[in-house]
# Entry
Amino acid sequence: MKHEIVEKQGASIVVFNGEIDLESSPAARKTLLKCFENNRNVIVDLSAVTYIDSSGVASLVEALQAAKKNGSLLSLAAVSEPTRRVLELARLDKVFSIYSSVDDALENKS
Amino acid sequence: MASGHLELLSKMSGHLAVTLNLEETIQKALDLIVKFVKSEGGALFLLEEKFATLVCKASAGPVDIRGIRVKIGEGIVGQCVTENTSRIVRDVQQDPNFDHSIDESTGFQTRSILCTPMVVNGQKLGAIELVNKHTDDGLFSDTDLLMLQTLASAAALAINNAHMAEELVEQERFSRELELATEMQRSLLPVTPTEIYPVAGINLPANEMSGDFYDFFELEDGRIYFSLGDVSGKGMDAALLMSKTASLFRCLGKTIHEPNVLLATINRELCETAIHGMFVTMVCGLLDQETGNVELANAGHEPPLIHSRDGTFTALPASAPPLGIMSLQAGGNGIREETFNLDGGTLYIFTDGVTEGCLEDGSRLEQTGFQDIIRERSDLPIAARLNAVVSILSDTGRKRHDDITLLAVKDPRPVLRHDADNDWAEMVARFTFPARADALQSVREVVNDACETCGCIPEDATDIIIAVGEACQNVVRHAYKGLSEGDATLEIYCKDGILEFRLRDSAHPVDQEKIKPKWPKELGPGGLGICLIHDIMDEVEYLPIPEDKGNLLRMVKYIKRKDSYET
# Structure
């Protein structure tokens, strides 16, 4: 898994690329939590995520909890099909704010 | 005279009322009449042989003429019955109708005769004849005739009652015998030992006795011999032939372990003692409980159906004519044997009482209706499926004309076998990997390839990869506590629409309680993985491992395949 962070319109856009599994999820978790240290809203671009397992989902959940704690927002954008499936199976698809694209997410944030 | 007459009538009625035995009744009646009319002798004749002959049933006086037969219209008694009139013959020597042969054979000398027919409700029963009045002139008077007529009417009524009583007794005896025969016949049918036993049968006769039968029993080597037959006709004769055939099956089946040879042998026996025009259609087969293989032979019977695991029905038509008609050889052009594997499916054998059975609306069930009933209930135990067919056909409020008999034979093996060497399904992959997070990606690739090989649709493949990924992740995280000190092995088996995964590690056994799927209140990764596995897979279980420590997780997914999904 690779990641990239883009700052846009006052939000941190985190783009994950590849597979978020037990091996890579600690890195993903660390990246997300770090973003909230700056009290910024975070949009996670999941379009290039080809696989996510429960540890990856747990990282997203932890990030969501961190956002709520410090009054920031966490949004998921352009969720890939494999990711959507896991969120659905985990009954978490209604827990996250999910947008069809990063731009949509930005629009709703502003 | 009149008071004596009444007294006699009441006495006779008293006697006649207490006895329902015909012979006793008529003898008593005749004795009383002879005594009262002061005759030397008398005889009571009843009509037999379709009312063509009078047979003497009771006799009083010096000679016993019981058993003597007189054709109606012949002799004085014969004429009385034919013409339905009474006669006084004061001197038989002067009467041209008098038959001298009886006197000649008995040595008795008949001088005068008084004769009257016995009739009830217009139906002739016979006649009473008195001979030789005792009194001074030895002649019967008109008063005697009148009295005989009255007494004969009373006797006729009593005879009629006794007749009816005898018929009733006979009927009751017959119905009791029928009951015993029914019970006996039912006891020939085997009982299915348990709900999961691979063979079950049911028989519902239309009447007390059935011309259908089924049977099954286990051979010493564990194979199950099963059979179902239908005897032509529906009466007691069919029922007896059924019992004979069923006995032959059970007896000869113990030593003849080839279904077609067994049918040929039973055929020979039936032909030797052929009952004219009767025959038997019969299917018999052997089920190998280890492999699910079936050897089947069919002599003239309605084609059995195989309901495959994929839901299709296949008919197996008869290769030979019914049994009991002509000599048949086993094999070749005679009784052939079919061999097939149940492959997770079920074989149904049934009589035409099923397919020709009537539904509530009067239409016939036919094979299509039968298939619908079975298809809708394929998740029930086999006996329950058969019961459903029978209750649909019997709860119609209509009179059934044919026996209903069904036999089901299912693949006795579990969907996939639990033993370590799974030789039933084909192993498509075996992958041993270090129990480390960085090995999980390769595991997913192996699973993905296996799904591809087995032709499963992409949606299923995605899910399977998620579930197996979670299972492997749990091994890494929990079983080995995240320490990289062991290997795990994933085996993947495939058979038709089933993918089975066996994940084995050599870590400490997991606590079964902790790995039950519980949706966590606090969302954390651990419990979520277990829930995903259970959500996606159709079967999840830990198998016991006899030797050394470790865990063996078995997961099964019934997949949709690309080829079958598109059609």
In short: The first helix of chain A runs from residue 25 to 37.
